[in-house]
Amino acid sequence: MLVVDDDPVICDMLTEYINREPGFKAVSASKVTEAITKLEVQKFDCVLLDMRFEYRSGEQVIETMRAEHARNLTTPIIVISGFLDAALVLRVRKSVKSILVKPFQNSVMMARIREAVEAPSAGAST
Known about the structure:
- The structure is a single chain.
- By secondary structure, this protein is of the alpha/beta class.
- It is built from five helices and five strands, in the order βαβαβαβαβα.
- Helix 2 (32-41) packs parallel to helix 3.
């Protein structure tokens, strides 16, 4: 799993929580460029993705993932954000598996992750 959030504290908290769950392993990225680099070299089972970053947007990560022949073309994406507007939701809804609005309960997050990785079109690896 890949956790992408511009707040390193949130990245660390979510990654640590996921890593405590049996059968799950997560790594994190706190910048869009870092996330894109990781996505280009590794296949992930799921990506938790914030949408707001200082200089870029989570939409750039989605575009990279959904590009033809991309390594993570079919990897499920769960958007995690405290700042969602209707226009953004409309733009990304076909590319993401689920949307979680911050703050959310970890148990809800894990339920969404399990649902995403158990779906027939889910990717395979980390």
